[in-house]
Amino acid sequence: MAQKATIYKASVNVADMDREVYLDQSLTIALHPSETLQRMMLRVVAWAVNANERLTFTKGLCDEDEPDLWQVNYSDEIELWVDLGTPDEKRIKKASVRGKQAVIYTYGENSAKNWWKQQKSTAAKYKNLSVYFLSDESMTALANAAERTMNLQFTIQGGEIWLNTEQETIALTFQAWQSQD
Description:
It is a single chain. This protein has a single domain, classed as Restriction endonuclease-like alpha-beta roll domain (Restriction endonuclease-like alpha-beta roll fold, Roll). It has 4 helices and 11 strands. The chain is α/β, with parallel strands linked by helices.
């Protein structure tokens, strides 16, 4: 019998002073049986960093045709495609061609750095693609903050991200490996 996803609930407050986005949202997040808590929490962070009322979680790991998150406009055009991990060249192209903007959040010190050496020239072909890396230390802190029911507050200012949980404050800093700026 196949394992089922574990459901997490998060009440999320985002105060993004850089983009002037302020949202309160209740999120239901499915942790796929093959997904780690670190990756699931990175999906939540990616949602907060790109927060928009139309940004949604997709089937992700269950559907190869969809990213982890996307923002689709009223004409069903993909405004933002967000992938996590170390996608192959074909996936990078798909994200960049199908989305007006594409973002990859990568993690895992050794695997991500090796992946970036191989994919950097491919990624450079796409001017609408940004690639960000989050350290192992930050990923561990995110996993440790995961609870089945969470209250999360994200404050984003000057490119810095602070995640406040009920127990702690976690400072997150993404390394921009490729940015649209």
